[in-house]
Amino acid sequence: MKIISGGVCAAKGFKASGVHCGIRKNRTKKDLALIYSETIATAAATYTTNLVKGAPLTVTKNHISDGKAQAILCNSGNANTCNANGIEVAEKMCELLAKELNVKANDVVVASTGVIGQPLPLEPIEAGVKPLVEALSVNGGDDAAEGIMTTDTVKKEIAVEFEIGGKVCRMGGIAKGSGMIHPNMATMLVFITTDAAISAEMLQKTLSTDIKNTFNMVSVDGDTSTNDMVTVLANGMAQNKEITTEGEDFDTFMKALNTVNVYLSRMIAGDGEGATKLLECSVNGAKDETNAKIIAKSVICSSLFKAAMFGADANWGRVLCAIGYSGADVDVNKIDVSFRSAKGTLDVCKNGAGIEFSEEKAKEILLEKEIEILVTAGDGDGKAQAWGCDLTYDYVKINGDYRT
Q1: Which residue among 187, 194, 206, 259 is the active-site one?
Q2: Does residue 186 carry a pLDDT above 60?
């Protein structure tokens, strides 16, 4: 398993593009993205559990009900959510692209991200589809990653290379997500491509399994989006023997998917709106994995703790507080807490009580861009990781006038 370049175009048979079509007022920002497979691909997806769902999710779920897709079309700047004509608009987007690509509209995955409750005009998309298709390139992954960004400050993409049955396979992914991040299925928007051959049933199984330990363990602000979706396309062009059951090949594929998803999860958390630091909470010694996850996510969701990390304040009591109200089955009198960064590791709590430590050393450690919160519960073998970010003044500034 090795990291390579290329993003969603690293796998054989995939091209991508991104253009500005006019949905967003800022003409310097791309707002329409496309990922295309030369052949029909196996498809799988997971969706937000929010009862309010973007129209594109409904359309996509219907389109890939047969386990197949060939293209992904995504616009930024407008979520196409809570619109009376949302389904009609999402279907029309697929039809416009299908005509230009000469594929079936039912083989198009459609996604939207941006402001909720504002009508999505079709005119910019009608005008943008042709240049979007013309721009398709094996080097277009970077443009596609830019085209799906909203308040993101950095593009989020990765690719890996691995071997299945003697055949070299590749997998790449792009993601967007900065605010309204508290997934209850997967994440904001993530598109993954691979040239490995795998059945629709097993592809769905890998995705549904992996998100529980990756995207579902990310939180920026505690708000679950209406448009969260993760989609994977596998076109089989690596020509490995199709994965149809669990086993060594399945495990290798799972490892590749996990590598991609962990990387993107960390990028999403670290690029939270207004964030200056990536927070990673690692829990060990919990009664079981379920309790470890509850503890880890409660810590990185605590607004008080997130604010302390912004100020580089080693206020470990807020960690214990978050664990205490998390609902986890845990003996708080056995908990140890440490902070770690590139500047070193500092123990701050033993058996649920404070210990002496250097405030100067603590400040040095917590001023780094990536902070690990190490929690040992002393109750069993359960372990988990969760990712979040600090809470800053800029988060309020960004969301105070997000729509206007």
Answers
A1: 187
A2: no
